[in-house]
User: What shape does this take?
Amino acid sequence: MRTGDLGFLADGRLCVTGRDKDVVFVNGRTFHAPDLEEVAAATPGLPTPLAAVIGSTDPADGTERVVVFVRWPRPRREAAHVLAQVTARVRQALAHDDVRVLPLPPGAFPRTTSGKLRRRTMRERYEAGAYGAVEARWCDGTPTPADAVTGAVGGAVPAGPRAGLASSWEEVAGVVAGVWARVLGRPVDGIGVHDRFLDIGGSSLKAMEVLAALEDTFGVSVPPGVLRDRDTVAALTEHLVAAQGGERPEPARPRPASGDSEAVAVVSMACRFPGADTPDAFWDRLVAGHDAVGPVPATRWSTRPGDTARWGAFLGDPAGFDAAYFGIGEQEATATDPQGRIFLELAHEALERAGYAGARRAGRRVGVFAAIGESGYREVLARASGPEGGLPPAALTGKLPNLVAARVAQSLDLTGPALAVDTACSSTLVALHLARRSLQSRRVRSRRRRRGQPRADLDRPSAVGAGGGVVADRALPRLQRRGRRVRPR
Assistant: This one.
């Protein structure tokens, strides 16, 4: 029986991932409709979080168009702003400009007897013109022919070189906005200096058109990565002004939100990764394209032909730890989780690299924010102690992941917050976020640190790996007031 579902078998279990016809093809890339629907449904202002996405080929010119249906009974005129936000979000996710958002009543979403959306039926109805009236009313974002766009500046940019014609920031910004308007088919006065290129209908193909036009206009080289990294008129203008040798203005960026105005600088790093014990060694391996994954060493565990976890990336000596240096007894060190031992070494190393070793950090509130996770070391200790137990008393605290940050603060005499964060896959990001907020709220006066926890996919093990990293951060304005040079990234 063919149901039209997509999925795979994992250990005898059927995992359904989607529908055969629920994929959208755009510029040679494949997107799953449910993923795009989540992007659309998350737009603030929609009355209900229901959306259906289809892909359709324009029979007139063969171009690809993406249609998003949202459930909105009797939308008022004010709904146009929310629908425009939906359009921008989906355009950015696709890097494709022809996205149309249509509000439909609840009864216009056909379903199967099991409750699944019948997207194919909705596509057939759309291509038959059933939603023509709705599209004519709400889809003012349908691409406009380039020759129909006019504006005060740059409605049509001359094809010949114009090197040196525009030198001030305002003049360059006007020409850049004009190029965007011509390529995107939008009025120039509808493009703000902080609008992101993909949000207002840009795509990878149109980015190449923009770059070519800017090179012809200003007579400078504009690499493809520039528009990716500087995707607003303001940021792109800064690059062009600098490329022409003109005076570079202060970065024109939106005013930061309240409570988020102080930037943070990374002042040092420390890491332990397979085959790389320093950031420099790790970078060299990345540049060389080194693959750290290999067969499981015989010193770790024995593998059999039928085992799935026969490959991995491992630290050279995870048990190597100078306990005496940190004033820790041999028995306590053995009972301490390796991630706690490694993190302590990395925290000390990061402070040394930042120039805050020993007495130099006295009187400073240094915080510790550790991303932690379950390592399985307690099971290792239990097996090593035998059937009668006999674990040392230090094992009671040594094997608790939530004491990793507290142990660092105690051993290094740090007086700021000490927080262990375990939010599964997002632990490191959450730890970084909390550390940054702590710096900005002055709970920490100097820096933050975080650890990248060892990770292993236990559901479908094919290769496992381990490693850790620490960064030491400080508030950027304070460094600048002290005359410290900071390299932008």
Observations:
- Confidence is low (pLDDT under 50) at residues 141-166, 246-260, 446-464.
